[in-house]
């Protein structure tokens, strides 16, 4: 609880400073590109909230030396490994000139550091043929590096609506923390609770009205720590099923599906931005349906409400992973159920065939402005 409290308080205060003084460094800190195809906001907002999460995490780990709430040395080793990924993302937030390839290389470097510094290497996926290959050290390291870098980048992809990535990250870290406590892994548990606190202190400024964004730096940092903790759980504890990795299936599946959609369906580069992510479709075709771009207040409200769809969807794997972390059969069924639900939801929305029960209820819509109300039908002469 100390890590959670210190992390929450530190992140809240640092985020307040970021919001309070963002105008002074507007050119570098604000997200001024409001016309990008993947943008779902309508005013310039600071996108360096990840700096608050990173700093609060460092403060919490430093505080643990006094309260002995986490293995400080290992915690700082993890923070050091995460630094290249964080810096690559933060550089993009500040300069808007760092290419996706460079950021991916930073994530790969961070993942490689984790393999050697923390000995966080995946040597099994609970499939005999593949496990035999993963026991060959270079193959195991290569597999781990790609997997960790993939999840690191995945969190950046799903960071598209108010509170979407941050709340999903809190849910995943809560699951990781629960499992870590169950198997008595002090390092993983303390870091998981630290991340819950730091992200929680940030999310109060990000949801429901976004006064600050996590940015690439925050998304890469959160995604990397998340991936490393999952790898450590699986590598350190043979009783934890390798299928527990489905706890982060939503961001991972979103990335894989986006690569398939861009490369093989649309014939575009896999790193080309677009407005066809599931969260974007939900916002534009369900959340913001019938709303004028000029009504920023209602658009922001719909943006926040749209995140709820993805929170619920992510629970399809997070809940089973939390309580059946040692049951590969249950976890496998949950993974198939999630994939089916995701593909079905995407297909009906992209084809404009969204079922009526998926539309927002009336109490969430608010009152339409006079400009948006349909004209009254003329009275007929009797």
Structure write-up:
The protein has helices at residues 2-20, 26-29, 49-67, 72-95, 100-117, 128-134, 137-157, 164-182, 186-206, 215-236, 249-265, 278-287, 296-323, 328-350, 362-365. Helices cover 67% and strands 0% of the residues. Helix 1 (2-20) runs parallel beside helix 9 (186-206), helix 4 packs antiparallel against helix 5 and helix 5 crosses helix 7 (137-157). The longest helix is centred in the C-terminal third of the chain and has 28 residues, at 296-323. The protein is an all-alpha fold. It has one domain.
List the helices and strands and how they pair.
Elements: H1 2-20, H2 26-29, H3 49-67, H4 72-95, H5 100-117, H6 128-134, H7 137-157, H8 164-182, H9 186-206, H10 215-236, H11 249-265, H12 278-287, H13 296-323, H14 328-350, H15 362-365
Helix pairs in contact: 1-3, 1-9, 3-4, 3-9, 3-10, 4-5, 4-10, 5-7, 7-10, 7-11, 8-9, 8-10, 8-13, 9-10, 12-13, 12-14, 13-14
